[in-house]
Design a protein that fits this description.
This protein is α+β, with helices and mostly antiparallel strands. The chain is built from 14 helices and seven strands. Helices cover 43% and strands 15% of the residues. Strand 1 and strand 2 form a beta hairpin. Pfam families: HHH, HhH-GPD, NUDIX_4.
């Protein structure tokens, strides 16, 4: 095990990528980076991280910002619950911890959006504590090097990997070790075609010796993703468009969108749109013409958005199925944070 650790650390020292969050020990900035890196590639996270930190350089500045502004800066990065949780947790840290992230594991875990992975990253990288980190990259490396042939997402297998990491951790250097493991998984021990020939621990890898490195880690069979047909209205009233804000909880919470919803089995798209807009906002509209169709995928389902240009007929919008609404000119749409699928509809308007 000592050889594995030393080879890994030597390789990391010579080959690690230059990334903005590796230039700081500021716990807030490391927290932001590790939150963004969940379910996001490094190249995309890097761009958004720099923009986010420029806008909100401290915990206090994030806490004082409106959620609308936070979501707008996060716009396009996806998984918006991360942004909502960051904002909420920043307010708690400001109010209850004098603007400083706690160094205690239990206190960190009590903050919204912070789980075991983020806690391990913050404590080891920012505070120098001997805490392990287990993410997808590290799971893959450990499963291959130590030939773990069960699904690492199973809790008992995950616990086995966590105990292995505790044994491997070089005391006083956990932050560097954790980042080295993540770097190895991201750049060398990749999912489909691992670059074994340049791997610093190739000679220690049991999976490579057995020729099964591409078969590990084992994963559960993928289920077919549900697909939804959605009708969306680009609703005009004079020179203004109607936009609605999604409720703060759930998928895309707090973002703005063109009103609409899922089609029922016995409905036409036009009938669906008339019903959804009335249920959501309490208004009557006239559907004019089909504008565009957008295919979009989320982690657990797929959608086809059918956008229609419409005219408002009567009724004052109400917050029946949304948090807020607004009539805006087309050049004002950029002031609001929209999901990516709705941005594609906006492109069809210009």
């Amino acid at each position: 095990m000592k050889r594995f650790v030393q080879n890994l650390l030597n390789w990391y020292e010579a080959n690690r990528r230059t990334l903005p969050w590796r230039k700081t020990k500021d716990s807030y900035r490391i927290w932001v980076a590790e939150t963004m890196l969940q379910q996001t590639r490094v190249a995309a996270a890097k761009r958004y991280y720099e923009r986010f930190i420029e806008e909100f350089p401290t915990v206090e500045s994030l806490a004082q910002a409106s959620l609308d502004r936070v979501l707008k800066v996060w716009e396009g990065l996806g998984y918006y619950a991360r942004a909502r949780n960051l904002h909420c947790a920043a307010q708690i840290v400001t109010q209850e911890h004098n603007g400083v992230l706690p160094k205690d594991k239990r206190e960190l875990l009590s903050l919204p959006g912070i789980g075991r992975y983020t806690v391990g990253a913050i404590l080891s990288i920012a505070f120098g504590q001997d805490e392990p980190v287990l993410d997808g990259n590290i799971r893959r490396v450990l499963c291959r090097v130590f030939h773990v042939t069960e699904n690492p997402r199973l809790r008992r297998v995950e616990r086995r990997l966590e105990l292995l990491l505790v044994r491997l951790l070089p005391k006083g250097h956990a932050g560097t070790f954790n980042q080295a493991l993540m770097e190895l998984g991201a750049t060398i021990c990749t999912p489909r075609v691992p670059r074994c020939a340049v791997c610093p621990v190739e000679e220690l890898c049991v999976a490579k010796r057995l020729g099964v490195q591409s078969e590990l880690p084992v994963s559960a069979p993928r289920r077919a993703l549900p697909h939804h047909e959605v009708a969306v209205g680009v609703i005009w009233k004079g020179d203004r468009l109607l936009v609605a804000q999604r409720p703060p909880e759930g998928l895309l919470g707090g973002l703005w969108e063109f009103p609409g919803g899922k089609r029922k089995p016995d409905e036409t798209l036009e009938e669906c749109l008339l019903r959804e807009v009335h249920e959501e906002l309490g208004i009557i509209i006239h559907v004019k013409r089909h504008l565009t169709t957008v295919q979009h995928g989320y982690s657990h389902f797929r959608v086809t958005l059918h956008a229609f240009e419409c005219n408002w007929r009567r009724g004052k919008p109400q917050t029946l199925g949304c948090s807020d609404w607004a009539w805006v000119r087309i050049n004002q749409l950029g002031h609001y944070a929209f999901p990516r699928a709705n941005q594609k509809i906006m492109e069809a308007l210009t």
